[in-house]
UniProtKB/TrEMBL annotation, chain A:
CDD domains assigned to the protein according to its UniProt record, in alphabetical order: GlpA-like_Fer2_BFD-like
Keyword Nucleotide-binding: no
Span of domain BFD-like [2Fe-2S]-binding: 376-427
FAD/NAD(P)-binding domain mapped to chain residues: 5-316
Keyword annotations: Oxidoreductase
Pfam family, one: Pyr_redox_2
Protein name (Swiss-Prot/TrEMBL): Uncharacterized protein
Basic and acidic residues bias locations: 56-66
Record lineage: Bacteria, Pseudomonadati, Pseudomonadota, Alphaproteobacteria, Rhodobacterales
């Protein structure tokens, strides 16, 4: 099945939702695609269970999400939920799959608003069931107003760490420990950047004081170095980054994360130019002040192009939608300029906050020097730290070679979980000019099964060509 | 946790009650069922990890196909098997 539109938007988070709305308000015929069951993305995720829907707790993210969902429902936008995009080709032709089968959507303009994924620094035993990303905790708390585990440890770095810990306390849980890679002075340095956005500073300070009041042990400048357990987590070992002193803590559930990185497979697949992001680590997609990428009629907005956080993402989305409407001819240059003026002003102020948060999630380049040889780096293919060093010894110089030598990044996650870590190991081993440490993206960007593409069919459905006349 | 458990699915043939709107992964986790499958190469135990559709650690047999448990909403009568794509143990 093929359908055509003026504009396709991939991702219905703050960026994609606002992009679709602003383009539709300018008169474009827009389709919006998201693999989730509702709009909102990561941060404005919709509640899913009755308990979460009933929750009256004051929650600005829920309110913003409800508002976005209401505006989308009242709009003319054609929305495809529970639909995964697995390929995008120039022109643009976007291939999707849902429970109903395969779909092709076409449009001359495309906005990519695919959001971020979480980085987790590997440590011994991080594949043990019971070890989760920090993002997992926020996703479950937003959708279900619940969090799994009895003896919970929350660890990692960055704003998400404090947010998860504070929200867990609000649910009445008492984490056994919070383990923060950042030191007190890291936080103070970041606070200077947060000062541009007082509401954020206040929220952060309130969370910190809630944790202090609850008396949860807070270990600064420390990290988890081992998870013990076989079929289920039993304990974790924490190490102080300065002294190296270790402590074992019993836990059945660990939530750990080290910041966010763009989910940019589609950006790279379509050839949008990128640049190394010194502050955030990894790469971001180059865009001009109209959110246009280097590929004509391809627009990028939100964390998928570079991680700045929820509010900047929403505004970038607005700008991208208006920009597409302008290039499509639905707005004159004067109308466009008038409409982007206010969003651009807000964006300049908010992006400072994004930079400050990123300082707290800076990805250390020597992250794996202390990681044991047996530690799994690529979870899908069970490629260990030792395997990677062996491949480098044998001559692997970039990620693609490492992939061919070890199968790293070849499994179903396609290097999402291991790419940055493997790149850090490569760069650490090969000092000097940095090589391009990205995997070449390939479709499908999501694993799909043949029967999903083909759908249910009867033999009668198979077209049989008329026999040629003899 | 006064959630009404209105949906019934089976996990390796055994019944599991869960709430409307839960994902298969969260229904299993709420029931302390953390182990989902073994990794295909190293045969090491794995459970859900990212809960946002990215890592594929939760890809198990659901109604006869491999689906991400963290992205699949529970449905009455759903059949869940705790094994992955390359996992042929019974
Ligand atoms: C788990 C998590 C929690 C976060 N919590 C906060 C928070 O509390 N506060 C804050 O300021 N920031 C938070 N962030 C940062 C947050 O991601 C951004 O600030 C904000 O959500 C970015 O908006 P976005 O629209 O760019 O992306 P997202 O909100 O991530 O939306 C992207 C959407 O694209 C969809 N998508 C991606 N790829 C595909 C595909 N191939 N096919 C179909 N659909 C696809 C996804 O399903 C998703 O809904 C969080 C990030 C994560 C990952
Ligand atoms: S837990 Fe990562 S994809 Fe489901």
């Amino acid at each position: 099945m093929t359908e055509s539109f003026d504009l396709l938007v991939i991702g219905a988070g703050p960026a994609g939702g606002e992009a679709a709305l602003s383009a539709a308000s300018a008169g474009l015929n827009v389709a919006l695609i998201d693999e989730g069951p509702a709009a909102g993305g990561q941060v404005w995720r919709a509640p899913r269970t009755a308990k979460a829907k009933r929750s009256r707790a004051q929650d600005p993210d829920r309110e913003r999400g409800d508002d976005l969902r209401a505006r989308l429902a009242a709009s003319s936008i054609k929305i495809f939920y529970a639909t995964q995009v697995w390929d995008a080709r120039p022109g643009f032709r976007v291939s999707c799959v849902s429970d109903a089968g395969a779909k092709e959507l076409n449009a001359p303009c495309l906005v990519l608003a695919t959001g971020a994924i979480e980085r987790v620094l590997p440590f011994e035993g991080w594949t043990t069931p019971g070890v989760f990303g920090l993002a997992a905790a926020t996703a479950v708390m937003k959708a279900e107003k619940a969090l799994f585990g009895q003896d919970i440890v929350i660890a990692g770095q960055g704003p998400l760490l404090i947010a998860v810990a504070a929200k867990a306390c609000e649910l009445g849980l008492r984490p056994r420990a919070i383990i923060d890679r950042a030191s007190r002075s890291d936080w103070l340095r970041a606070a200077v950047g947060f000062a541009g956005v007082p509401s954020m500073l206040i929220t952060g300070a309130r969370w910190m004081s809630q944790l202090a009041l609850a008396g949860i042990p807070y270990h600064r400048g420390s990290e988890v170095i081992r998870a013990n357990g076989d079929n289920a987590l039993q304990s974790i070992v924490m190490s102080n980054l300065d002294s190296g002193a270790t402590e074992e803590i019993e836990a059945d559930t660990l939530y750990v994360g080290n910041g966010l990185t763009p989910a940019d497979e589609l950006h790279r697949l379509l050839g949008a130019a990128q640049t190394a992001d010194g502050l955030r680590g990894g790469y971001r997609t180059i865009r001009d002040d109209r959110c246009r990428s280097s590929v004509p009629n391809l627009y990028v907005a939100g964390d998928g192009a570079g991680v700045y956080g929820a509010l900047p993402s929403a505004i970038q989305g607005q700008i991208a939608g208006l920009s597409a409407a302008r290039d499509h001819g639905a707005l004159t240059e004067a109308q466009f300029s008038a409409r982007v003026k206010e969003p651009r002003r807000k964006l300049r102020r908010l992006e400072k906050f994004g930079d400050a948060s990123c300082r707290l999630m800076q990805f250390p380049q020597d992250v794996t020097t202390h990681v044991s040889a047996e530690t799994i780096i690529c979870r899908c293919e069970d490629v260990t730290h030792a395997d990677i060093h062996a491949a480098i010894d044998d001559g692997a110089q970039d990620l693609n070679q490492l992939k061919h030598f070890t199968r790293l990044g070849m499994g179903p996650c396609q290097g999402r979980m291991c790419g940055l870590t493997a790149a850090a190991i490569l760069n650490h081993r090969n000092p000097g000019p940095k090589t391009d440490t990205r995997l070449t993206p390939r479709a499908p960007v999501r694993p799909i099964e043949m029967n999903q593409l083909i759908g249910d069919f009867d033999y009668d459905d198979i077209p049989v060509p008329k026999p040629a006349p003899l | 946790m006064s959630e009404r458990l209105e949906i019934r699915l089976t996990v390796n043939g055994a019944p599991l009650a869960c709430a409307v709107g839960q994902t298969v992964a969260s229904a299993l986790l709420a029931n302390s069922s953390y182990l989902l499958r073994l990794s295909p190469n190293g045969q090491t135990p794995r459970g859900a990890f990212c809960m946002m559709g990215a890592c594929q650690e939760c890809a198990i047999q659901i109604d006869g196909g491999i689906r991400r448990a963290c992205q699949t909403e529970v449905r009455d009568g759903m059949r869940v098997e705790l094994r992955g794509a390359a996992d042929d143990r019974g």
